[in-house]
């Protein structure tokens, strides 16, 4: 494995870390509704647990209301129960076949809790990035020990990894700040 391979691998893994962090942020509920909020809800369907998106059409009615249209007549009650029992704090109401899921307004206290959740997720992502840097640096030091590279190449590799880590951490900080602003916006 060469220095270029180490760097490329670390870049790819850091990019995947950022993507995973973005997906994590999407699960954090703000005052607005979005269909992805119900992605983790699973419904019992003929003996097996399926994601809500596989048994119903999930869409937005307006900025604060999600509509859930079951594909089968008898599924409405099961879907309503699954949404109510999820830890999302949502209370769906049934209108014939259609389920309306209004998003409750966030209290100031709940907003502060959510910003803490976002910061914690950001710290976890930063730890993952730093672990990737450490692994890449260990590979570079091993190459130096095996005399595959010179000390200058190793030093340059460590500097490049630090710059890559700094850029990635800055991007994570930017995502955290944007999500906090979104949560705190009334």
From TrEMBL:
The record's InterPro entries line, in alphabetical order, gives: Ribosome_recyc_fac, Ribosome_recyc_fac_dom, RRF_sf
What are the BP-aspect GO terms? cytoplasmic translational termination
Q: Name one GO cellular component term.
A: cytosol
Pfam families reported for this sequence: RRF
What is the annotated localization of this protein? Cytoplasm
For the keyword Transcription, the answer is no
| Molecular function via GO | ribosomal large subunit binding
- Alphabetic keyword roster: Cytoplasm, Protein biosynthesis
Where is the Ribosome recycling factor domain positioned along the sequence?
21-184
Top-level lineage group: Bacteria
Family assignment from sequence similarity = Belongs to the RRF family.
So what does this one do?
Responsible for the release of ribosomes from messenger RNA at the termination of protein biosynthesis. May increase the efficiency of translation by recycling ribosomes from one round of translation to another.
Q: What is this protein called?
A: Ribosome-recycling factor
Q: Which organism is it from?
A: Azohydromonas caseinilytica
Source taxonomy: Bacteria, Pseudomonadati, Pseudomonadota, Betaproteobacteria, Burkholderiales
**Annotated gene:** frr
């Amino acid at each position: 494995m060469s220095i270029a391979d180490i760097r490329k691998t670390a870049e790819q893994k850091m990019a995947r870390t950022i993507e995973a962090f973005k997906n994590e942020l999407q699960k954090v509920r703000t005052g607005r509704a979005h269909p992805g909020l119900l992605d983790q809800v699973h419904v019992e369907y003929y003996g097996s647990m399926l994601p809500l998106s596989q048994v119903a059409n999930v869409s937005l009615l307006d900025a604060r209301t999600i509509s859930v249209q079951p594909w089968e007549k008898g599924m409405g009650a099961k879907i309503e129960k699954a949404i109510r029992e999820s830890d999302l704090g949502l209370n769906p109401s049934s209108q014939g076949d259609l389920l309306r899921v209004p998003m409750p307004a966030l209290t100031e206290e709940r907003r502060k809790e959510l910003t803490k959740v976002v910061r914690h997720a950001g710290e976890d992502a930063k730890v993952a990035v730093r672990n990737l840097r450490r692994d890449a640096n260990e590979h570079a030091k091993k190459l130096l020990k095996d005399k595959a590279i010179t000390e200058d190449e190793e030093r340059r590799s460590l500097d490049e990894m630090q710059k890559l880590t700094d850029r990635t951490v800055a991007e994570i900080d930017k995502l955290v700040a944007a999500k906090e602003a979104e949560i705190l916006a009334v």
